[in-house]
């Protein structure tokens, strides 16, 4: 951006130039490139805020029985005060908090990649559906789906159906991850989705730890694969426009 002589700019924030803030679960499992919690995933600066005691198993398996809403609101408000233009999370199951947290912010809040399913459904050819690959289908309840504007009719495959390494690494918060084994399980999940639902026209990955394997899923299914990184990048691109130059 260039400024003209005499142009006035406004302050009021503490930091500038970080368009994205991410609310992080408290965890120690490896975050490889592509994971929302790996800063190298993003093509722009990111601010992180860890929510204390919000462990993976707790958030995936025990919301809304346990209440972390105020803790996540506090983290989101802090990120906004630091100057981020968009707040997201690193767990798709936090879709349960979408409206409550958005109500407390002046910047957009994207709780989950699940929020893009309805939009994608409107873009694919007639007779095709959007399917969801989730960390654990038994924990993805009707309440989660309703918070994303979905119902139980949406095709869903859980990672527990194709293996136990990726799921137990994340849920168990283990310090070692076999990336090749995790990739193979995601490939199996993509194949299972198409076997069960040949009408699938796009896939959304619910879990923010899944994007490292999105390309592998696309390679074996041949259909578009969306996740939190594609969703966030789309929204950020609308807030960080660049001027077009050319014949005008």
Note the main attributes of this structure:
single chain, 248 residues, alpha/beta, Rossmann fold, 2 domains, 4-stranded parallel β-sheet, 9 helices, 13% strand
Distance between the termini: 19 Å
Low-confidence stretches: none
CATH architecture type of the largest domain: 3-Layer(aba) Sandwich
> What is the topology, as strand order, of the major beta sheet?
2-1-3-4
Query: Tally the helices: what do you get?
Result: 9
Helices and strands, in N-to-C order?
EEHHEHEHEHEHHEHEH
Would you count the extended β strands for me?
A: 8
What average pLDDT do the residues reach? 94
What does the largest sheet look like?
Answer: 4 strands, parallel
By helix and strand content, what is the structural category? alpha/beta
Compute the CA-based radius of gyration.
Answer: 19 Å
CATH topology of the largest domain: Rossmann fold
Domain count: the total is 2
Shape: globular
Which strand-content bin applies to the residues?
5-15%
- The CATH class of the largest domain, by name, is Alpha Beta
């Amino acid at each position: 951006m260039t400024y003209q002589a005499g142009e006035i700019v406004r302050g009021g924030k503490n930091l500038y130039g970080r368009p994205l803030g991410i609310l992080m679960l408290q965890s120690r499992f490896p975050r490889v490139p592509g994971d929302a919690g790996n800063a190298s995933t993003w093509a722009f600066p990111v601010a992180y805020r860890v929510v204390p005691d919000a462990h993976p198993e707790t958030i995936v398996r025990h919301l809304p029985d346990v209440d972390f809403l105020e803790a996540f609101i506090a983290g989101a408000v802090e990120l906004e005060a630091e100057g981020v233009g968009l707040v997201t999370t690193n767990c798709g199951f936090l879709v349960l908090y979408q409206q409550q947290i958005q109500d407390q912010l002046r910047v957009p809040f994207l709780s989950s990649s699940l929020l893009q399913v309805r939009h994608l459904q409107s873009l694919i050819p007639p007779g095709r559906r959007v399917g969801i690959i989730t960390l654990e289908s038994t924990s993805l309840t009707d309440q989660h789906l309703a918070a994303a504007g979905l119902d139980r009719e949406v095709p869903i495959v859980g990672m527990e159906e194709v293996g136990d390494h990726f799921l137990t690494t994340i849920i168990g918060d283990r310090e070692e991850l076999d990336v090749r084994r995790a990739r193979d399980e995601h490939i199996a999940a993509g194949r299972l989705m198409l076997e069960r639902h040949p009408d699938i026209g796009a896939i959304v990955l619910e879990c923010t730890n899944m994007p490292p394997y999105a390309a592998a899923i696309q390679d074996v299914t041949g259909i578009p694969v969306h996740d939190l990184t594609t969703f966030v990048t789309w929204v950020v691109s609308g807030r960080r426009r660049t001027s077009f130059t050319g014949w005008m």
